[in-house]
Every structure is written in structure tokens, then in C-alpha cells.
């Protein structure tokens, strides 16, 4: 009588795990397909941000959720703007940011890549949006104080990050492909025009 009734729950759990695995693979497939389409991904996230802001404005609440979301996004932004190897924290064995004009060029590699930055922000707004449907997260607070505190925190954090960028002379943004404006070939510059 050992095996009686034991197969039902385990078979259902196996089927549920298999279905969850299939859905996870499907989600990862579409996530991978969206990787090269950065503009469309950010437009979709912008729409989600607009929906969240509209919901918070309409409900006149959930300011603690919005404040926590703002702190999380600020943390992600610091990771996005920081180099993978921080010269202040890491020992000098490996690729470093150039600090002088004579140093070898090393490309800027982010600590948090753009895709992971986008994905984390989108996921955070989805979680915050779902939290607005539960009244236990609507803690009554005086929101202007939270907004002022977040703005001060943002300014101080960005000031520190910009000072770090200036000290180690790096720009965390790709300003496009550099164009070489070298000398023209002598044959095209000095050839006489035939009239």
C-alpha cells in the first residue's frame, strides 16, 4: 500500500513544473528577440511609467511605493553610469580607465549594461503598479517631504558620480562612431578641373 495515492500529487507537480519551464523559455525567447530593439523597449517602458504615474495621480496615494521605486531607480542609475572596474575600489591588475591623454584607450564598460538596466526598471515599475492594487501599501505620508528628500539625495548622488567621472576622465555614453577627418588624398585635392 506504499504507492497508493502518491502518484497523483507528484504527477501534478511535475506537470506544473514542466508548464512553468515552458513559459519561462517562451518568455526568455521574446526577451532575447527584443534585445536589439532598444528604442522600442524604452518606448514600451515609458508607456508603463505613464500608466503608473497616472494611477498614482488618480488614486492620490501610494507615495511610499513611489519613493521606494525612486530610490531603486537611483541605485540602478548609479550602476549604469559606473565603470565595471572602479579605479578607487579595485586593485590595479586588469584593464583600467585611462587617466592621462597618453594612456592607452580602453572602452567604457558599464557595471550594469543597458539591457539589464532597462529590464530592472521595467520589472520595478510592473511590481510597483501591482502594489497599487493593495491598500496595505498605501501608507499615509506627507509626500512633499519625500519628494524633497529624494531630490536632495539625487543631487548629492549625481554630484558624487560626476566628480568621479571628472577625476577618472570617462564618459559613460557612446556619442556615436568617431569620424576620422584626416588629409585628403593628394590626387583628388590637386587635380585640375576639366572645363
From TrEMBL:
UniProt keyword annotation of Nucleotidyltransferase present: no
Cell location: Membrane
Keyword vocabulary terms for this entry: Membrane, Transmembrane, Transmembrane helix
Membrane-spanning residues: 39-58, 64-85, 141-158
UniProt xrefs under InterPro entries: Rer1 (IPR004932)
Domain of life of the native organism: Eukaryota
Pfam families: Rer1
Membrane topology: Multi-pass membrane protein
Entry annotated with the keyword Transmembrane: yes
Function: Involved in the retrieval of endoplasmic reticulum membrane proteins from the early Golgi compartment.
Family: Belongs to the RER1 family.
Protein name per UniProt: Protein RER1
Species this chain originates from: Rehmannia glutinosa (Chinese foxglove)
